[in-house]
Automatic annotation (TrEMBL):
SMART domains: AAA, GAF. Residues 198-427 form the Sigma-54 factor interaction domain. This is AAA family ATPase. PROSITE patterns: SIGMA54_INTERACT_1, SIGMA54_INTERACT_2, SIGMA54_INTERACT_3, SIGMA54_INTERACT_4. It holds the Pfam family AAA_lid_14. Keywords: Activator, ATP-binding, DNA-binding, Nucleotide-binding, Transcription, Transcription regulation. InterPro entries: AAA+_ATPase (IPR003593), AAA_lid_NorR (IPR058031), GAF (IPR003018), GAF-like_dom_sf (IPR029016), Homeodomain-like_sf (IPR009057), P-loop_NTPase (IPR027417), Sigma_54_int (IPR002078), Sigma_54_int_dom_ATP-bd_1 (IPR025662). GO terms for molecular function: ATP binding; DNA binding. It comes from the Bacteria. One of its GO terms (biological process) is regulation of DNA-templated transcription.
Length: 528
C-alpha cells in the first residue's frame, strides 16, 4: 500500500461512506471510481446477486457499453464465481484458468483476448453476499496478488456500505408503514378535535382556542395541563391539525400506561438483541412521529431516570435506540400533557426542573367542565355525534330538562365522564330524546319510567304532606336554570330560547311576567 499514497485516504472515505445515507446507485458509482485510482482496468463491472443470477448494475472503463450494463449470468453456470462468493476471497484468473475453467463471463458480449487480466472480488458483509466486482484488462497478464488483496479490502468496505444502504431502505419502508399506520389511527381516533373547541361559548375556552391556534403555527413545545378527562389529547390533536405538520403523523405515548422498563424502548426504539425478546429492530415513537407531532401524555409519570435522556433528545433532536451506539435524528414537534402539578413534582424531586422549562415554553390550561357549564349544549351534541359513528345510534339529542340535570352536576371526571353518561343514557333510552330522567348520575337514583309514558310528563311521587309548587314557580325555576346554563344568553343557537323551544320574544315576555330581569351579572336579553 506504500506505492499508493492515496489509498489510505480512499479507504477512510469509503469507511465514512458506509455510514452515510447515499443511495445504492451513488454508492456503486463512487465505489468504482475509487477502484480506478488503485488498480488499472479496461472494464470494471458490479454484479448484484438476485435469486441465483448475477445482474450487472454498474460499469466503468473504455470497454463499458450498454450490452455490458444489461448483462446477467446464471451463477450456477460459473463455478469459479460461486466459489469466490462461498470463500469470500478475491481471485485473479490466469490464462490456464480461462483455458480449463468455466469460461469467460463476458463471452458473447466482449471480444477479449485469451489470457487477458481478470479479477473477481466478492461483495460480502455480515451474513449476506451482495454480488461480485469483476475487473478486466485487454492485456494478457495476471493481476499481482498484493493488488488482489487490496481490492478485496475495497470489496469488503463496499459491501458494508451496501449493507448500510439496504438497512436504511428497510428502515425507511418500515417508517412509511408506521407513518401511514399512525395517520390511520389519528383519523380513526381523533374525531373533529378542533370542532369541540371552536363551538365553545365559554370565554375561557374561546381564549384557549385562539392561543392554541397561534402556537400551532410554530414548532414551539406546548405543555397542556388540566384535570383528568378535560380533553388534553383532543386539544393536542387540534394543535396538530392546525399546524403545518397536519399531513404528517400524530403519535401519542401515554407515559403512565407503559411499564417503566419498556418506556425507553417505546420512546427511542431498540435494535435486535438489545434485550431478551428483542427479535428485530423496532422503531420508537420518536421515529414514528418523524416530520409530525409527538404527544407525551401524562408526562408527569415519566420515570426520573428517563427524563435526562428525553431532555437530550429534545435539545439535540437526536437519540440512540436501546442497544445501539448509532445516533438517530428525528424532526418532531413535541406536545406534553399532564394532570400532575409539575411544580410540586419538582419540589419533591420527581420531575427535572430543566425538563419542565424545556417542555413548558407555551403552557395551556384546560378548565374543568364545572367551569364551563355553558358549553354543555354544544358538548352533548358533539359527543353524541361522535358516539353515533361508533355505535350507529344516530339522532339522539338532549332535551332542555336533560341539560338542566347535567348542569346541576359537578363532573369530577369532566368530558370523559360526560361522554360515559351520554352513552349510558343512550343505551337505556328507547327513543331519541334524552330527558332529565334519562341520566343516572353518581349518588342519585332515577325512578324507572314505563316506556309507554312520555318521560317529560311523568309526575314524580311526592312525600306525604309535601307542598306542591305552583306552575309559575316551576316555570321560573326552570327558566333560571337554563339561563344559568347559557350564562344569560337568550338569542341564537345554544341560547335559552332555542333550548326551551320558544321564540326569543316569547321567552322575553314570559321572563318579564315571572320577574326574571337579571342573572348573576348577565342581562337576560344578552344575545352575544
Amino acid at each position: 500500500m506504500g506505492r499508493h499514497p492515496e489509498v489510505t485516504q480512499d479507504a477512510r472515505e469509503l469507511v465514512e461512506l458506509a455510514t452515510t445515507e447515499e443511495g445504492v446507485g451513488e454508492l456503486l458509482r463512487r465505489g468504482l471510481d475509487w477502484v480506478s485510482r488503485v488498480v488499472p482496468f479496461d472494464l470494471a463491472t458490479l454484479f448484484l446477486l438476485k435469486e441465483g443470477r448475477l445482474e450487472a448494475v454498474a460499469a466503468r472503463g473504455p470497454l463499458a457499453n450498454q450490452a455490458v450494463r444489461k448483462h446477467s449470468l446464471q451463477l450456477a453456470d460459473f463455478p469459479s464465481l460461486k466459489h469466490a462468493l462461498e470463500t469470500r476471497r478475491a481471485r485473479a484468473f490466469t490464462e490456464e484458468d480461462h483455458s480449463h475453467g468455466d469460461g469467460d463471463p463476458f463471452d458473447g458480449v466482449l471480444d477479449l483476448p485469451a489470457g487477458h487480466a481478470c479479477m473477481v472480488v466478492p461483495l460480502c458483509a455480515g451474513e449476506r453476499c451482495y454480488g461480485v466486482l469483476t475487473l478486466d484488462r485487454a492485456q494478457c497478464e495476471t493481476y499481482a496478488q498484493p493488488v488482489v488483496d487490496l481490492v478485496e479490502v475495497y470489496g469488503q468496505m463496499l459491501a458494508t456500505a451496501l449493507q448500510g444502504a439496504e438497512q436504511r431502505a428497510t428502515a425507511e419502508r418500515l417508517h412509511r408503514q408506521d407513518h401511514e399506520h399512525a395517520k390511520l389511527l389519528e383519523s380513526q381516533l381523533g374525531g373533529d378535535s378542533e370542532g369541540i373547541l371552536e363551538t365553545s361559548l365559554s370565554p375561557v375556552m374561546r381564549d384557549l382556542s385562539l392561543r392554541a391556534r397561534q402556537v400551532a403555527e410554530t414548532d414551539t413545545p406546548v405543555l397542556i395541563t388540566g384535570e383528568t378527562g378535560t380533553g388534553k389529547e383532543r386539544l393536542a390533536r387540534a394543535i396538530h391539525r392546525w399546524s403545518a405538520r397536519a399531513d404528517q403523523p400524530f403519535v401519542s405515548l401515554n407515559c403512565a400506561a407503559i411499564p417503566a422498563g419498556l418506556l425507553e424502548s417505546e420512546l427511542f426504539g431498540h435494535v435486535k438483541g438489545a434485550f431478551t425478546g428483542a427479535n428485530r429492530d423496532r422503531a420508537g415513537r420518536f421515529q414514528m412521529a418523524h416530520g409530525g407531532t409527538l404527544l407525551l401524555d401524562e408526562i408527569g409519570e415519566l420515570p426520573v431516570e428517563l427524563q435526562a435522556k428525553l431532555l437530550r433528545a429534545l435539545q439535540e433532536k437526536a437519540f440512540e435506540p436501546v442497544g445501539s451506539d448509532k445516533t438517530v435524528r428525528a424532526d418532531v414537534r413535541i406536545l406534553a400533557a399532564t394532570h400532575v402539578d409539575l411544580h410540586q413534582a419538582i419540589a419533591q424531586k420527581r420531575f427535572r426542573e430543566d425538563l419542565f422549562y424545556r417542555l413548558s415554553v407555551f403552557p395551556l390550561r384546560l378548565p374543568p367542565l364545572r367551569e364551563r357549564r355553558e358549553d354543555l349544549p354544544q358538548l352533548t351534541v358533539f359527543l353524541l355525534e361522535e358516539q353515533a359513528k361508533r355505535t350507529g345510534r344516530r339522532g339522539m339529542r338532549v332535551m332542555a330538562s336533560g341539560l338542566v340535570r347535567l348542569a346541576s352536576y359537578d363532573w369530577p371526571g369532566n368530558l370523559r365522564e360526560l361522554a360515559n353518561a351520554l352513552e349510558r343514557a343512550t343505551i337505556l333510552t328507547r327513543g331519541q330524546e334524552l330527558t332529565a330522567q334519562s341520566f343516572d348520575l353518581p349518588g342519585e337514583r332515577v325512578r324507572e319510567v314505563p316506556a309507554a309514558v312520555p318521560v317529560e310528563d311523568t309526575p314524580a311521587p311526592l312525600p306525604a304532606g309535601a307542598k306542591v309548587p305552583t306552575l309559575a314557580a316551576v316555570q321560573r325555576e326552570h327558566i333560571l336554570r337554563v339561563l344559568t346554563l347559557t350564562r344569560g344568553r337568550v338569542y341564537g343557537e345554544g341560547g335559552a330560547a332555542a333550548l326551551l323551544g320558544l321564540k326569543p320574544s316569547t321567552l322575553q315576555s314570559r321572563m318579564k311576567k315571572l320577574g326574571i330581569a337579571r342573572l348573576e351579572g348577565f342581562t337576560a336579553a344578552e344575545d352575544a
